[in-house]
Write a structure and sequence with these properties.
- It is a single chain.
- By secondary structure, the protein is an alpha+beta fold.
- The chain has one domain (2-62).
- The chain is 32% helix and 10% strand.
- It is built from 2 helices and 3 strands.
- Strands 1-2-3 form a 3-stranded antiparallel beta sheet, with no helix packed on it.
- Bound molecules: zinc ion.
- Zinc ion binds next to loops.
- The site of zinc ion has 8 residues, from loops.
């Protein structure tokens, strides 16, 4: 994150937005490798904007982070 803050100072508005989106997507993929429905591993789809589960056919999209107090107990169960 320190790198993003350092690099963002020298970027224009559009480049900073693209860079921030790329970092956010990369972090999301790194942390969401399993299907929240069945626990199977997911694969990258739709050019990186979706993770797909081949077991149950579900698709998962990045979403803004919720405060931990808003998450249900089911969301805290580990997978894979
Ligand atoms: Zn699944």
């Amino acid at each position: 994150m320190a790198f993003l803050r350092e690099a963002g100072v020298d970027l224009g508005d559009i480049d900073a937005g693209v860079f921030t989106t790329g970092v956010a997507l990369a972090n999301w993929h790194e942390r969401h490798t399993c299907c929240p429905r069945c626990g199977s591993e997911t694969t990258v789809a739709e050019g990186g904007w979706v993770r797909a589960c081949e077991v149950d056919g579900s698709e998962h999209h990045p979403a803004p982070s919720l405060p931990s107090s808003w998450r249900s107990p089911m969301m805290k169960i580990g997978c894979c």
